[in-house]
């Protein structure tokens, strides 16, 4: 079961989300932040959320600005905006009487989840999956456009068959964001999950995140998984691990 919801972004346009409702007794609530341009309905986001719901953890997954069913222009967003809107999603859930104790982030969303935890009071645990140690890691997706964007201020960017606009402020934002201090001062339980054979975001990123973090921290290698968790059972397996690990922090 699920609910379709909308809530205002921190910049004004409304964001579209899905709350996957717990099956059976409610163990807790979570917010999931999707990868770079993947959206709430990407295989990783939807499968992780649905498996957590089967395990009694309700999850809000939402489309970032200008993606999927959300309003606005993706080009007006940035890593900082993604972080702020993730915290906004937590507040939306809390206003609905669903206190969020867990943040889950996949890829670029994993970095955002770590940063967003600092903007919340109730979140007690963060799980990152295939996250980069530095947000600027996403530059490999558009490195051929960098010179044009710096010169003209923006350039069209094709992602998942959809034409988006990549603007100069996004590039500058990811380049100046230092995630290291936010990892070091997280003061919440952190689960770092990564595939040793991830060819998109190398596993060294997970090592650096784990080494920078303070206890309580845990690391799980997702053997055999690809970065997008598209293989059969990969996303569900990751969700079951998160569900078991997060149990002490949900209530």
What would you note in describing this structure?
Keywords: Hydrolase. It comes from Microlunatus antarcticus. One of its GO terms (molecular function) is carboxylic ester hydrolase activity. InterPro entries: AB_hydrolase_fold (IPR029058), FrsA_esterase (IPR050261), Hydrolase_4 (IPR022742). About 35% of the residues lie in helices and about 25% in strands. The longest helix is centred in the middle third of the chain and has 17 residues, at about 80-95. The protein contains eight helices and ten strands. It has helices at about 45-55, 80-95, 110-115, 145-150, 170-175, 180-185, 205-210, 235-250; strands at about 1-10, 15-20, 30-35, 55-60, 100-105, 125-130, 155-160, 160-165, 190-195, 215-220. The model has no long low-confidence stretch (mean pLDDT about 95). The chain is globular, with a radius of gyration of 17 Å.
């Amino acid at each position: 079961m699920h609910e379709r919801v909308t809530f205002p972004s921190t910049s004004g346009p409304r964001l579209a989300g899905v709350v996957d409702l717990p099956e059976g007794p409610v163990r807790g609530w979570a917010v999931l932040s999707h990868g770079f341009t993947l959206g709430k309905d990407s295989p990783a986001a939807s499968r992780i959320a649905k498996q957590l719901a089967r395990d009694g953890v309700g999850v809000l997954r939402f489309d970032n600005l200008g993606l999927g069913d959300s309003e606005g222009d993706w080009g007006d967003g940035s890593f900082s905006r993604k972080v702020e809107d993730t915290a906004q999603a937590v507040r939306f859930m809390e206003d609905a009487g669903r206190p969020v104790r867990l943040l889950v982030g996949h890829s670029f969303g994993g970095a955002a989840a770590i940063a967003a935890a600092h903007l919340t009071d109730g979140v007690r645990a963060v799980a990152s999956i295939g996250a980069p140690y530095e947000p600027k890691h996403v530059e490999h997706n558009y490195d051929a456009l960098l010179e044009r964007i710096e010169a003209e201020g923006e350039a069209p960017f094709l992602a998942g068959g959809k034409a988006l606009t990549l603007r100069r402020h996004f590039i500058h934002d990811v380049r100046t964001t230092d995630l290291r201090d936010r990892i070091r001062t997280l003061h919440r339980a952190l689960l770092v999950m990564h595939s040793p054979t991830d060819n998109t975001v190398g596993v060294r990123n997970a090592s650096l995140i784990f080494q920078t973090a303070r206890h309580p921290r845990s690391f799980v290698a997702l053997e055999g998984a690809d970065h997008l968790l598209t293989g059969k059972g990969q996303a569900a397996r990751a969700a079951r691990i998160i569900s078991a690990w997060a149990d002490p922090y949900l209530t």
